[in-house]
Structure prediction request, 200 residues.
Amino acid sequence: MNHQNFFTGLEDTFKTISKHVEIDVQNYHTYSGEIDSLYMSSASEFEVVSKDLCKVLDPQKEAKNIEDIYEVFHDKCPDILNEIISIRKYGLSIKPFENWTSDVRPDWWVHYNKVKHNRTGNSEKANLGNLINTLSALQIVNYYLVWKRDCPTKSRLAPPLKMSSHPDIFTMKDVNYSGPFLSDDVFDDVPRAAAESDTE
Prediction:
């Protein structure tokens, strides 16, 4: 399945949740069965996409776990760890990899594993705040996978040209998904005339 299309489905489910729970930091500890289900799916997909990204960044290394993923990100693409997701609709800026080190995992990842291995004892950790951070992390690795796999010689702004669908809520900071894409470093493998006609 196309990763970005799968993300779009997860984002659609998030929109449904947002009709019942206000997306606000005051509600970050809110948890429910629906949030739990989306949280687990999103975190699992994050691991899948991250491993695919690691194969692109370092084909010689097999990323078997979150420790390996961090090592590849840190060594081959450190900028990814500082990326920010803008959730403009709710006035939020999310930095899901903040404080991630070789020894410390993001809270949303730690909590995901606790819920996965003991849902009954950790149900409150499948909450809105962790879900938002997980979806943000997932969109970042999706974006980087398209960039590094499909647009390796282009700028950070190139992926929207290759993405099968664009996020509606969880968007990369400073990325204009609708174009125009006229910069040579973004549009270096398509004739400029074609580029300009596509934006009309």
